[in-house]
Amino acid sequence: MSDAPKHPADPANELASDNSAIDPRDFRNALGAFATGVTIVTAMAADGRPYGVTCNSFASVSLNPPLVLWSLGMFSQGLTIFQNASHFTVNVLGASQQALASQFAKSSDDKFAGVCWTPGLGNAPVLTDCVANFQCRAANRYYGGDHIIFLGAVEAYAYNRQEPLLFARGSFGRFIAENGNKSS
């Protein structure tokens, strides 16, 4: 007999919320204890219109080669835009950009109204005044439960030393260093 974990034949089915003993709302509350940065991921639609969505599922994957990932819900309004885009930009928001995060989190015909940006690689919008941006070639995508995970090969990036915007327990926040000072 082996102590190796047994994997179900169809992990996607095993993890479906109607087949799991885990309560989805309570699980979401537990995940909220993990503070994340806040990003707006952008791409250019095939019709030439910019598109973006607020996202906190961004993570680094590899330094060599430089890879990052983020995920988007299967039923998201902009899913086909990101699936068809050659490039996307992950724009990391600063502490003063809460309103921008909220603007891109809501459904709207023109999320870019009043937003300053420049076209980046593949024309994916690079938002002005973010604390960092990662311009990525869409390298691959994977199905993960009710989300699609986008893997990006970073081809250009920029950053500054401004304070990042954080999100935890359903609210925006700021980083306080151990010495009690805000990050700088």
UniProtKB/TrEMBL annotation:
Q: Which stretches of sequence are listed as region Disordered?
A: 1-20
GO function terms (MF aspect): FMN binding; riboflavin reductase (NADPH) activity
Per UniProt, the keywords (alphabetical) are: Oxidoreductase
| Lineage: superkingdom | Bacteria
| InterPro entries listed in its UniProt record | Flavin_Rdtase-like_dom, NADH-dep_flavin_reductase, Split_barrel_FMN-bd
Please name the Gene3D superfamilies in this protein's record.
Electron Transport, Fmn-binding Protein, Chain A (2.30.110.10)
Keyword Ribonucleoprotein attributed: no
Q: Does the keyword Secreted apply?
A: no
Q: Which SMART domains match?
A: Flavin_Reduct
List, for all copies, the residue spans of the domain called Flavin reductase like.
Answer: 31-174
Similarity comment text for this entry: Belongs to the non-flavoprotein flavin reductase family.
Provide the protein name. Answer: Flavin reductase family protein
Q: What is the lineage of its organism?
A: Bacteria, Pseudomonadati, Pseudomonadota, Alphaproteobacteria, Hyphomicrobiales
